[in-house]
Amino acid sequence: MTTERATFDEPWAMAFLPGTPWLAVTERTGALHLIDPASGKQLAVAGTPRVRVAGQGGLGDVVPGPTFAEDGTVYLSWVEGDGSASGAVVGRGRLTVDGDAARLDGLTAIWRQPPTSGGGHFSHRLAFSPDGAHLFVSSGDRQKMEPAQDLSTTLGKILRLLPDGTPAPGNPFADRPGAEAIWSYGHRNVLGLDFDEAGRLWASEMGPQGGDELNLIEPGGNYGWPRASNGSHYGGGEIPDHADGDGFVAPSAWWTPSVSPGSLLLYTGDAVPAWRGDALLGALSGQALLRVDLEDGRAVATQTVPLGNRIRAVQQGPDGSLWLLEDGAGGRLLQVGVG
Ligand SMILES: [Ca+2]
Ligand SMILES: [Ca+2]
């Protein structure tokens, strides 16, 4: 059901670059690669940022900007800092490919997460709205929990920015100092962000012990962390489950025990016709592709497709093809539904 096209060292994210043959792949340890999946040709991109590789941090996401076709602008996320304080950064630069030389020029940071101690829950997933007007960024709780409920910090949030990194006008807390960029809150570690064909934003979130979530994101919504979770604290501390009337937006789908969703794709292609319109999540500890059957924005069924390896990323090709990246050393790039 899958065909191997390449292998990478701790791959983290991938994105097809429109109008080119290239699939961009990040490796957590700092490298950015371009691969033409049809021929197997690969180029290493020069000019990547200096990243702090520790804990869960390193080089993170890559997405083409809304002006990619005109000027080659791509957006990256990564972690900077040192052992005492680190945080995620979002930056943009211009990618050029000249023969066998690929490089990133003018890379500039446009947003920074507040630096904190620890090496986890950076999130730093990126997604542009379908019209290209807004850049959504997930900013994790950095394992501090309570900041997710605090509207004066961007930790534990989903942010809506303009393409230059400034808070987008019209955000739900625009008149509260420090909250101008916040779109939704009460998030733990959102590692997947994507839009469906109707323009709705979805997010996948790593729960604590159990309680991994797929959420339909509403502006101003409070998704509950750490006051509500269908999981528990590690070691058994109880957290109230999501419940009607608790003031928190309940997940559309959830998984207990944990499957560790590391990526999310709202699939609109036809390589696997039965999955069109559904949410596909790559499961790390679950070693599977998770499918949530969606009807009009509601989850009506879930399916687990065991793959025997940790799945780090899920992506759709410009031709509707479906691609997976395994996690870890030697992680394979797999095309689904052929061969
Ligand atoms: Ca929640
Ligand atoms: Ca619970």
Main traits of this protein?
339 residues; globular; 4-stranded antiparallel sheet; binds calcium ion; Neuraminidase; 8-stranded mixed sheet; mainly beta
Describe the structure.
The protein has one helix at residues 68-71; strands at 2-9, 11-16, 23-27, 32-35, 42-46, 59-64, 73-81, 86-98, 101-112, 123-128, 135-139, 157-161, 182-185, 190-195, 201-205, 212-216, 253-255, 261-266, 279-283, 288-295, 298-306, 311-316, 322-326, 329-336. The chain has a single domain, classed as TolB, C-terminal domain (Neuraminidase, 6 Propeller), CATH 2.120.10.30. The mean pLDDT is 97. An eight-stranded mixed beta sheet has the order 2-3-4-5-9-8-7-6. Strands 1-24-23-22 form a four-stranded antiparallel beta sheet, with no helix packed on it. It is built from one helix and 24 strands. Strand 4 (32-35) and strand 5 (42-46) form a beta hairpin. It is 1% helix and 45% strand. By secondary structure, the protein is mainly β. The site of one calcium ion has 6 residues, from loops. The site of one calcium ion has 7 residues, from loops. Pfam families: GSDH (PF07995). InterPro entries: 6-blade_b-propeller_TolB-like, Glc/Sorbosone_DH, Quinoprot_gluc/sorb_DH_b-prop. Residues 8-334 form the Glucose/Sorbosone dehydrogenase domain.
